[in-house]
Amino acid sequence: MKAKNLILTSLGLLILLLSYLVPFTLLKDSRDLTLYTFWLFLVIASFITSLIYLRGEKDG
Question: Residue 3 pLDDT > 90, yes or no?
Answer without folding.
Answer: no
